[in-house]
Amino acid sequence: GEDVEQSLFLSVREGDSSVINCTYTDSSSTYLYWYKQEPGAGLQLLTYIFSNMDMKQDQRLTVLLNKKDKHLSLRIADTQTGDSAIYFCAESISGTASKLTFGTGTRLQVTL
Amino acid sequence: GAVVSQHPSWVICKSGTSVKIECRSLDFQATTMFWYRQFPKQSLMLMATSNEGSKATYEQGVEKDKFLINHASLTLSTLTVTSAHPEDSSFYICSARDHGRETQYFGPGTRLLVL
């Protein structure tokens, strides 16, 4: 079955770049997503990438996909205290079904 | 962007009672809605996929008679936790898929505490 892994915790200083990593096992993943969850809240979609892309940039966010190694990363440039949250990567193997398998989540702590 | 609401945002109930949670897509039609459960400090686990006008599809290990799902319209799906027990206490999150788009929009979640 699908398995999506993330490191549990990342601490960075304000202004530095954050890189959150994710590995997945299902080679048939079609779409890969990054979601942000603030305490006690639902999930906010940050960005997503199609499996035939290597990179996607959206303002401070850069997503890199290494399909060969099944590795996905999210880089946040100029990290701010408001970026402190839990970040989930997720995959879906079928665009039409859109069933998501979530990673374990990475808690990002931004320090002053 | 698309907005999905959930009601209530939190609920406390006694063991043995039933609780209904609503999930609404506010500015788009959702033929498919998903129900997730998240235990403290854990990831989201898909419980079931709800399709408008048909029976929900449950994930392995999820009791369909305990977690009743109704998707009667293109903007509303409900999850009823029947005869709730303390182990059902969790954060329940729904998402709705905008027809034709390859992403889901998540609701803010409902925190359920069963005493």
Explain this structure.
The complex is a heterodimer of chains A (about 110) and B (about 120). Chain A has about 110 residues and is mainly β. Helix content of chain A is about 0%, strand content about 55%. In chain A, the strands form two sheets. In chain A, strands 2, 4, 5, 9, 10 and 11 form a six-stranded mixed sheet that branches. Chain A has a five-stranded antiparallel sheet with strand order 1-3-8-7-6, with no helix packed on it. Chain B is mainly β and about 120 residues long. Helix content of chain B is about 0%, strand content about 55%. Chain B is globular and about 40 Å long. The interface of A and B includes residues 42 and 101 of A.
Characteristic key phrases:
heterodimer; A: about 110 residues; mainly beta; 6-stranded mixed beta sheet; 5-stranded antiparallel beta sheet; about 55% strand; B: about 120 residues; 7-stranded mixed beta sheet; 4-stranded antiparallel beta sheet; about 0% helix
Shape, principal axes of CA atoms of chain B? globular
Sequence stretches where pLDDT stays below 50 over 5 or more residues of chain B = none
Strand content of chain A: over 45%
The H-and-E topology of chain B, N to C, reads as: EEEEEEEEEEE
Range of helix content of chain A: under 10%
Give a quick account of the main beta sheet of chain B: strands, pairing sense, barrel closure.
7 strands, mixed
Question: What portion of residues of chain B belong to β-strands?
Answer: over 45%
pLDDT < 50 runs, ≥5 residues of chain A:
none
Rg over alpha carbons of chain A: 13 Å
The share of residues in helices of chain B is under 10%
Secondary structure layout plus pairing:
The complex is a heterodimer of chains A (112) and B (115).
Chain A: E1 4-6, E2 9-13, E3 18-24, E4 31-37, E5 43-50, E6 55-58, E7 61-66, E8 71-76, E9 85-92, E10 101-102, E11 106-111
Parallel strand pairs in A: 2-11
Antiparallel strand pairs in A: 1-3, 3-8, 4-5, 4-9, 6-7, 7-8, 9-10, 9-11
Chain B: E1 4-7, E2 10-13, E3 19-25, E4 30-38, E5 44-51, E6 57-58, E7 67-73, E8 76-81, E9 90-98, E10 104-106, E11 110-114
Parallel strand pairs in B: 2-11
Antiparallel strand pairs in B: 1-3, 3-8, 4-5, 4-9, 5-6, 7-8, 9-10, 9-11
